[in-house]
Each structure stands twice: as structure tokens, then as C-alpha cells.
Amino acid sequence: xxxxxxxxxxxxxxxxxxxxxxxxxxxxxxxxxxxxxxxxxxxxxxxxxxxxxxxxxxxxxxxxxxxxxxxxxxxxxxxxxxxxxxxxxxxxxxxxxxxxxxxxxxxxxxxxxxxxxxxxxxxxxxxxxxxxxxxxxxxxxxxxxxxxxxxxxxxxxxxxxxxxxxxxxxxxxxxxxxxxxxxxxxxxxxxxxxxxxxxxxxxxxxxxxxxxxxxxxxxxxxxxxxxxxxxxxxxxxxxxxxxxxxxxxxxxxxxxxxxxxxxxxxxxxxxxxxxxxxxxxxxxxxxxxxxxxxxxxxxxx
Length: 301
Hints:
By secondary structure, this protein is an alpha/beta fold. It has helices at residues 16-20, 83-97, 113-124, 184-189, 218-228, 244-251, 263-272, 287-300; strands at residues 9-13, 28-33, 41-52, 58-59, 65-78, 98-108, 129-136, 151-158, 196-198, 234-237, 255-260, 279-281. A hairpin with a 5-residue loop joins strand 4 and strand 5. Helix 2 runs parallel beside helix 3 and helix 5 (218-228) packs across helix 6 (244-251). The radius of gyration is 21 Å and the shape is globular. Mean pLDDT is 86; it is low at 39-49 and 69-79.
């Protein structure tokens, strides 16, 4: 088992295709990516803070009122004319970089998942397709014209479908929906999840929230890391975004490489992953951000 000092976190800034080609074959035991979903829209999140104000626009704890202050926004354009053409060379690199017993997870939504699975079947082989995990959540507006879309799709491929990491005993257990039907012992132990994972999105007001538009819950990515890799393994996310895989990896004793070409993603990762002391490549955090982080570190010391 790797010691805490063995764990490394490397963050690369730039086009992922060129950076991926620098790594030797079989470098990573687990690869997870959450590429742009090709929605054709600008993905954006507005960042706010609340200030105590008797005339404010929000009501909080014990009826106190607060005023909303907009402090910024993060956004990127999620649109590609040839989405499959964009993905295909990157997926070939993922296959090349995956260790012989490694697993690849592809996070997408209903708009493109069917096309992506056909593409992945051609690269990994249909026999290597293990599961489609449905991450179901119940948050946000409801459509009045069709069934509201409230899930993402995660496709799991094992490079060798006969030999891969699946740590069953590490699976977190969830409550039975009808505990009275299974007896007190089973009810107390709980059950393992199926291929449908009910899990809330990242809370807009919670401590986990970074403000990045497509941030995924640490609980979802952490489950993949815990079950499909071993301590000391090397993990990869080449559409890193807010860096959730990096945090999940380091906190569970795995090393990781993260890649993204969005300056706003890099700024988020600088702050979020400061605890892991990542090594940045082709990127230098702005001086004011470095100063603020140094000041915060001094306050926590």
C-alpha cells in the first residue's frame, strides 16, 4: 500500500490530445472522463454570496433576511460541429494508456450516449462493455412538454473483461427501501447499489461547491475510485474541470493526472486541490491567487 508521501497529483494545462501522447502505454489503472456533453449551449454558473440585510431578497435561518451579491460567473461553450470526430482520437489514447487490468469510465448524458457507446464498442470491443451506470438525481426545473431529464449516463469498459479491478467489499451500502421485509440484521447492514445510483447533485450552497459549471459530486466519483482502483494506483482525467477525480484519488491514497484547457478550470483546481500540493505543468497560478492561498494556509497552520 502506498504511503501518503507516495501519492502525487499532476495538473496539466493545454490540449489534452497532445499531452496524452506524452505518456507511455498502460500508464493508468483507472481513467474517468466527463467530456463536454455537446448541448450546443453555453454552460454557466453564477457565483453569489449573501450579506445580512434587513431589506434583503432572501430569508434565512430564524427568519433573518439576506441580500444576494453577484461575485462572478464561470462558463464555457459546450458545442462541437463534429463531436464524434473530436472524441475519437482522444478515446483511442485512453485505450492505449489504460493498464491491462484497468477500467475506463465515460460520463455523458442522453443526447450523445448512444453514439458514444457505438464508438467505444469499436475501440474497446463490445465484450469489454461492463455496465451502463445511471446517475439519477431530482433537482431543478420540470418540463411541461416531456418527461424531465434527471439523469446522467456513465459507461464502464474494462480493457480485459476477464481480469479487472472490482473491490466488492469496498462498496458503500445504502438503506433498503422496505427494511421491514428483510429483517433487522440485513436492514442494519444495508444493501449494495445497483447500476442506478440515486445521488443529489453538488449542493449550490454546500461546502463542496466550487462554482464550476459541470462539477460532479465527490460521492459519485469517490465510489468509482474506491471500487475500481487500489491504493497506490495511477488515475487519469483528461477533461478535469473542477478536479473532482483528483480530490477523490488523493483522499483515497491514489495518484492522479488531471488535464484541462480551460483557464477557469485551472483556477478552480488551484484552490480546491491546494491541500494535495499538486504539480502544475504549463500553468502558473495568478500572483494574487497564490498570495491569497498562502495567506489562507498561514491562517490554518
